[in-house]
Amino acid sequence: MGSTESDTYSRVLKNYILPFSVSAAAFGALFVLRKFGIIYQLFNKVDKTTKRNGGDIVGEVLKAHGVKYVFTLVGGHISPILVACEKLGMKVIDTRHEVTAVFAADAVARMSGTVGVAAVTAGPGLTNTVTAVKNAQMAESPVLLIGGAAATLLKGRGALQDIDQMSLFKPLCKYCATITKVRDIVPTLKTALNEAQSGTPGPVFVEFPIDVLYPYDIVYSQLGVKENGPVNFVQRIINWYLRNHISNLFAGAFEERDKTPLKPVIPKASSSQVQKSIELISRAKRPLILVGSQATLPPVPAEQLRKSLEKIGIPCFLGGMARGLLGQYSPIQPRQKRGEALKEADVVILAGAVADFRLSYGRTFSRKSKIIAVNRNKNQLLKNSDMFWKPTIAIEGDVASFITELADGLKGFKCDQEWIQKLKDKDNDKENVNREKSKEKTEKHLNPLKVLMEAEEVMSDNTVMVADGGDFVSTAAYILRPRSPLHWLDPGAFGTLGVGGGFALGAKLCRPDCDVWIIYGDGSLGYSIAEFDTFTRHKIPVIALVGNDAAWTQIEREQLPMFGSSVACKLDYLNYETVSVGYGGKGCRLDRSNEDKIKEVLLQAIKDSREGHSVLINALIGTTNFREGSLSV
Q1: Structural contact between residues 576 and 520, judged by C-beta atoms closer than 8 angstroms
Q2: Strand locations in 536-585, DSSP E?
Q3: Confidence of residue 561 (pLDDT cuts 50, 70, 90)
Q4: Does residue 85 register a pLDDT over 90?
Q5: Which of 85, 328, 445, 475 has its CA 20 to 30 A from that of 221?
Q6: What dihedral angle (degrees, nearest 10) is formed by the CA atoms of 485, 70, 495, 489?
Q7: In this structure, what is the dihedral angle of CA atoms 78, 127, 66, 87, given to the nearest 10 degrees?
Q8: What are the transmembrane regions (predicted)?
Q9: Residue 295 three-state SS
Q10: How far apart are CA 415 and CA 417, in angstroms?
């Protein structure tokens, strides 16, 4: 098993330095020897003949951690990693934009319970990922971003695509590291992968200078050592420095090291916190649970969480990745009038839900309500509690583990059926209003509610829905019903447009037997429509339903009445279906001319997708007053 640098220096200090009385100069000399790696090189030699490289080690660590997919946009800085991963049996998916690679890794992380991995080249390759990394941070997704970088000796010297990448990602990632020696790859990646999953999950970043990834002979040939002709004193010093640098870079590089994954640290509720919560809920007459995305995180399987919620029997509003947790229809899941329900509830459990803009910063809670808040992240746990609400019990711990313990402790509890029925009646009333509204004729083209209700009717029980858009997607959230746990993907609190292509890639890979639908707005479609090429090349068929209203309608709805102008809000009714065909997929159009065939067109898209074709349905829609009064800021 390969020794670490710290082990080597500790051995030298113990055996050769500390037994003797030495001067400060000796310790200074030792510091210099350590800085240049000379002592480590005495005990760990360089294999100059091996054809192995740092990319091989990266691949081995990823494989040992159960990574199945690596998303990328290729670049010379990272080629050894991609080649090694493919040789080791991982599927390498190259996208048309680096941001898509990270979105795809995010989707894999959410749906598989493992770390999603994206690898991109240096400089602009990395800067292109910033939005997706920030989205993963806010969505609490464990993503490993691997980035190329200039050679260790050339950093800051004007090398191609050389920028200070670490300063970009430190505010966005839980853990950032740069590899300076090949022997550091294994421990650094193990730490990064563990950090991504521990506590509140999130993205991590590891930077790989190009010379730690390529083989020794190639790196040496590019080093600039002057081998021939007369060599003066200065050149000899330079040659020594360069040779020592590469020797330190590769010393002990390919010794066997333990690649076993580290165990993530996950906070749990204390037994006293669970007991206090049980007592509070036992006295409740109108309890309510708000379940957020964090509830779907490992270690508790989503199916076990579902059984626990059903066992407790308290009405649940589901948000984010928790949509679908209770199936398409559930007697304890109301979907409408959440604000009214919160005003009436006497006990509210925030199970990973956060009192941010989605809950009006806590203003939607009744002042009389007792609130149990559970979240792994302390900042999210207490968000806005200094202004509009106060938790009765605040638990910094894993949500699903808490719910499971709660279910075990509430064995004799039975929620008031009148309360449950009252919420379901309000739900049904709103659903009936929506159904009637879907029958109204719009001024032109199709009623968006009608299109979505037809889609809801034809979608199979084995459907994954990806939400990417503004107005059309917000409408869809009221109409479409995810069928199963972990079968709904949306960007989360950051509200990012452009997630569709990447999320669908990751979703289809994790759920190859599912129909994967992207619900697009026509504005958001522009960000990732090029990924239809990726779907085609990698044989990853998906269905895209585009609500094409030729505008950024969610913004225009407020901007026009407030300021009397639609400037920058207008788009055109473009033929997006032909773009899909150009990228190797199929396309079709829905408008008033074939309104009576909406279901037929949607069913054909499902059939085509199951036969291996990606399909884009360009649904031209008009405007309704369904979302009047909604705010986009």
Answers
A1: no
A2: 543-548
A3: very high
A4: yes
A5: 85
A6: -20
A7: -20
A8: 16-33
A9: helix
A10: 6
